[in-house]
Structure prediction request, 257 residues.
Amino acid sequence: MNYPKVIDHISDWLKTYALNAKCEGFIIGISGGIDSAVTSTLCARTGLKLICLEMGIHQHPDEVNRGMEHIKWLESNFENVSHQRINLTNTFESMRLVLDDKTKKHGLSMANTRARIRMTTLYAVGQANACLVAGTGNKVEDFGVGFYTKYGDGGVDLSPIADLYKSDVFAIAKELDIVQSIQNAAPTDGLWKDERTDEGQLGATYPELEWAMQYEGDGSGLTDRQKEVIEIYNSFHRANKHKMVAIPVCEIPAELK
Prediction:
C-alpha cells in the first residue's frame, strides 16, 4: 500500500465530504489510542476546523496523558485544531444512580454506556459547531469482529479509516509521525477501570485477526493456533453481525395495507 498517497486520498475525501455537506469541519473523541490519533491527524490535514474532545470517564492517567500529548502535538502543527476537556465521570455516575442493581452491576452494559455517553457529547458539541463526527473504527473492528459499541463509538457521520486494517493504521501513524507514546501503546478501548487491552479481550492479536478475515481456505493444513484464531474470528463475527447490517425493518405485506 502506498501510504503517502493513501494519506492524501483520505484527507481529500474528508474535505470534499464536509464541503458538500455544508459543514465547517470535524469533531473527534481523542482516546490516547492509535485510531483516534491517526483519524484526527487526517482530519487536521484538510485545513478545515477540527475540534478534539478529551472525555474522561474514570480514565486511566496513561490514556489521558497520551491523548493530551497528541492534542498538544496537533495544535502545534495545525492552526485549525482546538480542543475541549469534558470530564464525564459525574455524568456517568449520575446515570448509574438511577439504574437498578442488575443493570449497574453488569460490566459490559456499563462499559458500553460510557461509549454512548461520549457519542452523545460529540454530537452535542459537534452540532453546535457545524462539525461532522469522525469515526475511528478500522476494517477489522468495524467489519470483521464488530469490536465497537453500537450507537457508541459506532455512532458517527463518516468513517475515514474503515477500509484500513489495524496494521495499516500503525503504518500510517509512523508515516504521519504520530507521537511515539501512542505508537508504542497496546490498543485498548478505555471502557474499563483496569488496563485490559483490545487483544486481551479478543483473545487474538490484530495481525492474527486480519489473517483470519482474509482467509479463504478449507481449513486443511492449518496449525492448532490458526484453527483457534479462525474460530475466535468467526465467533465474534457471528455474534456482532447485527452491528454491521442495516436495522431490520418489519415490512407490512401489501394485502395488509
